[in-house]
Every structure is written in C-alpha cells, then in structure tokens.
Specification:
Blueprint: H1 5-24, E1 30-35, E2 38-44, E3 51-52, H2 57-66, E4 72-76, H3 82-91, E5 96-101, H4 104-116, E6 123-130, E7 144-146, E8 156-159, H5 165-171, E9 178-182, H6 191-200, E10 203-212, E11 217-224
Parallel strand pairs: 1-3, 4-5, 4-8, 5-6, 6-7, 8-9
Antiparallel strand pairs: 1-2, 9-11, 10-11
C-alpha cells in the first residue's frame, strides 16, 4: 500500500525543519517577532511565524494583573525580556524595574528587548546569577553573583529562575508585598514545596496559572498576609 502523498510531504517537511532548526536557524540574521504582545528581535530570517501570542502566558498574566503604575519590580530570570518589559509597561516611567539574568546570550537578548521597547529609562538589566545557578540557559561567563538577601527592595518580585526559586524565597531578608513565582517540578522545585515556603514566609497564594502541568511549571501569585 502506497503512503499518501500528504504524508510523504509531511515527512519531507519534518526532515527539512529538523535540518533548519539544527544547522541553519542560529546562523541567520534576526528579525523582530512578537511574544505575547512584546516585540523582540529573536526570530530567524526564514521562520514561518513571527508571533507567539501565548508565550509565558501565565507569568505574563500575573504581571499584568499585579503590577501597578509607579511600582518597583525586581525580576529574577530575564530570558528574552518578555516579563521584564511587561512589568516596565505596567509601572510606566514613574516606576522602576530591575532584572537579573545569568546566561550571557539571554542577558544580551534581554538588554536588546529593553531598548527595542523604549523602556530603558526606568528599566535596567544586570548580568548576574541570583542565589544558586540551578539551570542557566547557555554560558554564564562574566556574570556576577548576587545573594538573595542583597536583592533590592521592591513592591513585586517576579521569579522565573529555573529551579532556584525555593532558595531565593527562603533567603529573602526584605520580602516584598507580592511575589509572582514560576515553579519547576522537573528541577526539584515542585508547586507543593514552593507553596510551603511561601506560607512559612507569611504569604497567601491568591492565584494559580498553568504553563506546563506535566512538568510542574506552575505560576503562583502570593501576597503577604
């Protein structure tokens, strides 16, 4: 029995896509794509789609709900800069946003996203690892190390730090009013353990969002009681 032509075409497409992703994509010039409403210079020249409308949906939703004009926000784990720029847009120029990112490639991407979105006047990027470096994307050459206790005072703390969240929450000396934390069950930082630490530090979880339930990637929003 012959395979349908559509399956043959799909097989060829998958082969070409794997070759493109593995050997070609990272060598191409970058163009601007839109991640959950935030322009980022991160799409390769021949990428089929330039929009990722659900990117970090639960984390972004939490930030947009909790951050207000004039707030001081600290973000640990900058990634592409989506969460940072979302926070900066919410605070406006009367606020302040500081982001800490340990991976060198991601830090450069973060800094570019801040400039691209014209929020650099009240937003700063730090090439730094906060607490323990559990799962940093790429190389962290040149990154400084910041103790969680030395993080700046803030109104809202956003943690997207790939398994380091429990150590950071445990070591905070000046806990903020609101914490938005992404748990990482697959990195030994499950939701249950994060909830326990939040309760011990005097927080009540007021919202729960799901990124990847099967991997234990859950976003918890908590306020001090």
């Amino acid at each position: 029995m012959e395979r349908p032509a559509s399956l043959e075409r799909f097989g060829v497409y998958r082969l070409l896509r794997s070759i493109y992703d593995e050997y070609v994509r990272d060598r191409l010039p970058r163009k601007v794509g839109v991640y959950n409403g935030i322009p980022i210079r991160d799409r390769a020249l021949f990428d089929v789609t330039d929009e990722q409308p659900e990117y970090e949906g639960a984390l972004v939703s939490g930030i947009r709900r909790q951050v207000s004009t004039g707030d001081h926000v600290v973000v640990v784990g900058g990634g592409r800069g989506v969460s940072t720029v979302c926070a900066s847009t919410a605070t406006g120029p009367d606020g302040r946003v500081e982001c800490f990112e340990g991976g060198l490639e991601q830090y450069n991407r973060l800094a570019d996203t801040i400039r691209l979105n014209r929020v650099d006047r009240w937003t700063s990027a730090h090439h730094a690892v906060v607490g323990e470096a559990v799962d940093i994307y790429g190389e962290s050459d040149g990154a400084s190390v910041v103790a969680p206790a030395d993080l700046p005072d803030c109104d809202v703390l956003v943690l997207d730090c790939e398994g380091a969240e429990i150590g950071i929450l445990t070591s905070l000396e000046r806990p903020p009013e609101t914490v938005i934390v992404e748990t990482h069950g697959f990195l030994d930082s499950p939701e249950s353990a994060v909830r326990e630490v939040l309760a011990e530090r005097g927080y009540e979880v007021i919202d729960r969002g799901v990124e990847y339930e099967d991997r234990g990637v859950i976003v918890l929003t908590a306020r001090r009681t």
